[in-house]
Hints:
Blueprint: H1 4-20, H2 22-29, H3 31-42, H4 55-85, H5 88-92, H6 99-128, H7 137-159, H8 165-170, H9 172-182, H10 194-200, H11 204-217, H12 223-246
Amino acid sequence: MMNPRMMFATTRRVLEQLRHDHRSVALIMVVPALLLTGVYYLFENETLPPGFPRTFDRVGLMMLAIFPFVVMFLVTSITMLRERTSGTLERLLTTPIHKADLLFGYALAFSIMAALQSLVATAVAYWIFNLDIKGGPGYVVMIAVINAVLGVALGLLCSAFARTEFQAVQFMPVVVIPQILLCGLFVARDHMNSLLEGISNVLPLTFSVDALQQIADNTEATQAMWQDAGVMAAIVVWVLVLASFTLRRRTS
């Protein structure tokens, strides 16, 4: 059974480690905003008819969820692998701490960083690049945070199957890139062949893109948006529980 005290102790320890790891903090906080800047200038010189929405308003909105997802997946999987290979995880698991306390403690710590990351990236999108959509920025931040936490959960799960940092990175083409290609960002899902559409319909990132599209098209939160957000949150919890069963003390 989970022990909140143990979980929060793990969260404090991870946050303290991150505070001294300036490169990881820069990767988490700065890189998504820089990538978003690149997306903006990629479409800066496009010529559009009067009243026609900018490409950045559509693509940039989706990147607010995709960039944190990718960054948090990488940071979390590599950090967890280092904990295991260094023996830190083995020492922790000799204490009364439960695996679920450990995993959810890590998830909470990185979720706090993910929330800060999403706030920074969303602020850049709205205040510097004038992102123009119908929905409010609060809903955008909410979906971006859930998406980043999804990256955390998948990173924790995948780290259990990697022995080196290079192997952890190799999960990117398997876990992350297919979701980006099939989430509906590049091609509408109903225009895909039946096999790819069926796969797309069950990928977590698809629900994120659908939720953001609902936010972009409606001034108020819709039932479909809340349903997509609920499904994503449920997937996060399910992945974390699954990761607790696959967690190993150390990598040989």
